[in-house]
Input
Amino acid sequence: MQKLKDKFKGKRCFIIGNGPSLNKIDLSLLKDEYTFGVNSIFLKEKDGFKPTFYVVEDNHVYHDNIEEINKFDVEYRFFPTA
Output
């Protein structure tokens, strides 16, 4: 975490949640933006979307989808510790 301090200072970032309404959003508009994707955002990879940062905050999502999550190739990944 320390090596990320101020690395993106002054840049804008979008946090993308999950849910059915996400299917109505054109995520290609965020292609050149810094983005945080959460939990099951890896399902949007089939649509060509990959966030800059991937965060799993739900242990159940992590354990239930470990194979897909391990294949999800993003630069920065943050997982639960418990």
Remarks:
- The chain has a mean pLDDT of 89.
- The helical segments are 59-64, 66-71.
- The longest helix spans residues 59-64.
